[in-house]
Write a structure and sequence with these properties.
By secondary structure, this protein is an all-beta fold. Helix content is 0%, strand content 46%. It contains no helices and 13 strands. It has a 5-stranded antiparallel sheet, with no helix packed on it. A 4-stranded antiparallel sheet has the order 6-13-8-11, with no helix packed on it. A hairpin with a 2-residue loop joins strand 3 and strand 4.
């Protein structure tokens, strides 16, 4: 407890508040190269359906840390993040700004080993269908960027659940989730 994590944000160093863990993890962080909130695809743009700017919301997370709230996942800032408080799996429940067919989910994380994406088309987030699952390479605390192509439903989803199934360390962070 009380150890300070060092983050390297863009080209300048910044001190990140302690994550309340007992491990001394040194985080060097680089922002995503091509995730400005919208992705250009062949002349058209696909909006981020869960961005706070367009009305997306984080409904639930399985860990709470007041210094790194869940809303950081969708705030559009690369320098903010949500951090787990230990143990796996970890869940993040997101409400889309409007029901839409989900084609991909992009995540920007640290220390995540495996992740599952599920969607729900119902009025209440109860019954989810698996859409994608993937593994992320160990990156020694550096930022991991992963795009997961979603398959299995053409039905417009109202909710997306991101489940972090396992991690490379006891704690993980999610810097951004982009739903297209």
């Amino acid at each position: 407890l009380g150890k300070i994590l060092i983050a390297r944000l863009a080209s300048q160093a910044a001190v990140v508040p302690p994550c309340h863990c007992c491990c001394a993890v040194r985080w060097s962080w680089q922002p995503p190269q091509e995730w400005p909130g919208q992705l250009a695809l062949g002349g058209s743009t696909m909006p981020d359906l869960v961005s706070k700017k367009v009305g997306g919301r984080v409904l639930m997370v399985s860990s709470l840390d007041e210094g790194h709230p869940a809303e950081n996942i969708i705030d559009g800032s690369d320098s903010s993040y949500w951090i787990s408080t230990g143990l796996y799996p970890q869940e993040i429940l997101l409400e889309l700004s409007q029901p839409a067919t989900v084609s991909s989910v992009k995540i920007s994380t640290t220390n995540v080993k495996s992740v599952r994406i599920e969607t729900c088309a119902e009025d209440k987030p109860v019954n989810f269908k698996p859409m994608a699952e993937g593994e992320l390479e160990e990156s020694s605390g550096r930022l991991q960027n992963k795009e997961l192509a979603c398959q299995g439903s053409s039905e417009p989803a109202a909710y997306v659940k991101v489940t972090i199934l396992s991690g490379w360390h006891d704690f993980c962070s999610v810097h951004r989730v982009v739903v297209e």
